[in-house]
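Input set for joint prediction.
Command: fold jointly, output tokens.
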Amino acid sequence: MHAVVIIGSGFGAITAAIALQKRNISDFVMLERRSFFGGTWLQNTYPGAAVDVQSPLYSVSGEPYVWSHLFAKQSELADYTESLIQKYLLDQHIKLNSEVIESRWMGSFWRLSLANGKSLEAKAVINATGPLSTPVIPKFNNMADYQGVSFHSNDWQHDVEIDGKDVAIVGSGASAVQIIPAIVDRVKSLAVVQRTPHWLLPRMDWSFPKWLARILAFRPLYTLIRWCIYWALELRVIAFKYSPFLLKLVGHYPALRHLRKQVESPQLRAKLTPDFTIGCKRIIVSNTYYPALQKDNLRLFDASDAMLGFWEGGIEFAISGKVKADVVVFATGYDAADSMISYSVIGQHNIALSQQWKDYPRAYLGTTMPNFPNFFVVTGPNTGIGHTSAIFVIESQMKYISRCIDELQKETVTSIQPSAEAEMKYTNMVHAEMQRTVWKNGGCSSWYQNKQGKVIAMFPGFSFIYRSMCKRFKKSDHLIR
Ligand SMILES: Cc1cc2nc3c(=O)[nH]c(=O)nc-3n(C[C@H](O)[C@H](O)[C@H](O)COP(=O)(O)OP(=O)(O)OC[C@H]3O[C@@H](n4cnc5c(N)ncnc54)[C@H](O)[C@@H]3O)c2cc1C
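tokens >
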């Protein structure tokens, strides 16, 4: 029996492991379903992959890095992830090819069953399976007829030749916006299938010469830069929640200016202008997307020439008919909202988490649930943040999880869970606060919402408020036995 099992090996799992080590808990295992560890940035190797939050903030606090760009590219993020795994000797704890298919509460401990037939037991479980880790490909008509090669952007097939080929990319969200400029000059033709356009702001990126990058990684300076970026981004919440006027000033107008500056054709501009309030979906930052869309070998298909489905040689559109594609890339996103935990979790009294969450996923501080003792969900319901670094939120959760683990370390304590009243009070507060946010009222449907339109991915406010709630451990909100 282990003290803790951590599911996953991305930043969520890594920060959990570091937090445990800081508490001198070394009896933990990290289970990773893939044949390699590291999560998001080891998995997403598509051309152009990069972070869209400034790297000094999108990094683990107290773990500075010599970033060559303000917005790090995938390879640096992968190196950074691996450097943390090496530094904290986490490879000794990680078990690869270990997909959890069931976690079951056995009265005083958890039993985890793996797809490889093994099982293991632990007093506590930290689920860090990632908010955007299960890719989704919608069902299109006649997909089975298509004879070419297709794959999801999350699973880029580097051995598939795209140079000089007819390529199509389905989707126009954050990943597509990075991929399209990176491949447009390599392919013979590129068909871009856009369901809805997104708001884009300029990407204020800089590359740093090695000497400067080293200075910037000097811990006090790194902390100062991180602090400045954090507060600059945090101010956006005022616009997202409290001031439509400010949102227009700092979001809508700059985005329109960016579009006007980069796109001359009024027809194309019309196709690229969203009909929802900026911020309702994640704002994308790019200087290269609009120029790429205007290359001679690229055709943009929007709702006016809707995708009907596939034919054996490519994609069929309502007006343009059959368009050839040797390779189709699905940049169609992730199953973020409706299956926050995709395997079976059975708690006290044989209650299934999927049953408890049948209306919508909910958790105290987005982390713990009544009936599921000693079970902690990293990046759980309503912990998403559209304006700042996901790692900031993950580290906030660790403050709460660590306090719960402290309780579990006491000899007399076997379990901790939030009371149903405390969870309900927290959830009611979250959804009441959500009413005034752009994520609820912005007139879009996004992965922030579940199928019923309830915003279940985002925290409705300042991230420092969330952190302060996580830090202020309220023992009276918990059942400790
Ligand atoms: C392309 C892309 C770009 C992004 N860009 C940004 C950004 O710019 N800024 C930002 O703040 N956030 C961004 N994110 C969000 C990103 O998910 C978080 O920033 C962060 O990496 C989440 O870390 P995690 O450890 O929770 O999840 P992940 O890194 O996804 O790790 C989860 C791990 O759990 C494993 N796993 C899942 N289910 C099981 C199971 N049943 N059993 C065993 N293992 C399992 C997965 O294989 C994976 O390795 C991006 C996400 C993607 C996909």
